[in-house]
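F420-dependent oxidoreductase
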Amino acid sequence: MPSPTERPFRFGIVLHTVTNRREWRETCRRAEQAGFDTIAVIDHLGQAAPFPALMLAAEATERVRLGTYVLDATFHHPALLVRDVATLDLLTDGRLELGLAAGRPSAAPDDLRRAGMPCPTPAERADALEGAVAALRRLHADQRFRPGPGRPLPPLLVAGRGERALRLAAREADIVAVNGTAAGPGGQVGLPAFAGADAIERRAAFVRAELGERITEVELNHEAPAVVVTNARRQALDRLSALAPSLTAEERGQVPGFLVGTPAQIAEQIRRNREKFGFTYVTVLDGGLDAMAPVIELLR
């Protein structure tokens, strides 16, 4: 297995907007043609249901993996989730990539209240994530809870920011997604505020230490909320102040998720992120679809 600094890059894109069948299929095709390895969807009320959207994405594409980035563990009963995961993986010929997290603290309460569900504390969210991962593995191994022939559980991505979630991810996941958001007062995530490079480096180092011998088997992922192709890098970093108000422009330029510059500069930043943090799997938002295409080409 390659070392973390030699592992080939993978690129994912989170597509948020589903307007109609034709446009969704076309967007998915464009993402595949741009070189992305994974098309992913989110898990929020008021937006497209993840599994039907991914099923249509599978019909529109040929090679990309199809991911959830990420399912909220507090939303889904494990037995029903196993059924849905196994069905989608079966019908997409094994292209599913299953992402789970404990739920975004700033958004989950609104989602849960609208659903008439209790709003868990941070500790209860972490309990739910741990329970979901354990139940998924147990139930998926039981043929009574899933359709079709026996297949392995799809690659599992677990996202987290705190040590408890990251420790779970290092122990159980095939892909560890290191959350780059900053903690605000009261331990809440100050979205859309993102942490500085030092904080993210500490999280990535914690994961690498927890992985131990598994470090060559597990991918480290991060989200890139901003992809800006420009010749005026400093000015573009100034305009990202709303995403990281506590950081200077120079400090924002060190954040692994702020990909800013010419395609060559962004490609070099991604290479540095692999060396410094161990990140080899980069997930961008849908606004970065066209901007990332030349960058991906440079890194193949």
